[in-house]
Amino acid sequence: MTTKKRPQSFHEFKIEWLQDPANSQAYLEVILEEYAHDHDVKALIDSLESIAEAMGGTLGLNKLIAKDHGGFDKALAKNPNLEWGAVLEALGFVLVADPV
Q1: Is-contact 35 44, C-beta < 8 A?
Q2: Which of 85, 87, 52, 48 is nearest to 67 (CA)?
Q3: Chain segment 58-99, per-residue pLDDT in tens
Q4: What residue spans define the domains of the chain?
C-alpha cells in the first residue's frame, strides 16, 4: 500500500520553486517590471518576502529593512526611501539599471 502525498498549497509550491536561484532571479525580474508599471508596493513587498522565505526565512531581511519598525509595511510607512540596493543584496542580488 502506498501512502498518498499531501498536495502542496500554492504558497508551499512557490517557496519550493523559489529555492532555485535561477527561479528567484526570474521571479524578481518580473516583480520589478510589474512594480515599474503599477507601483504596487504591497505586491513588491509580498514578493520580496516570498524570496526571503525561500532562502530560509524573512527574519534577517526584516531586521535589515525594518530594524525596530516591526516589518516591511511599517518600515515603508516610516521610511518610503528604503535602501533598495541593500534589500536586494540581502536576497543575493544586485541593483542594476536597465534602459526603459
Answers
A1: yes
A2: 87
A3: 655 665 555 544 555 565 556 656 677 777 777 788 877 776
A4: 10-90
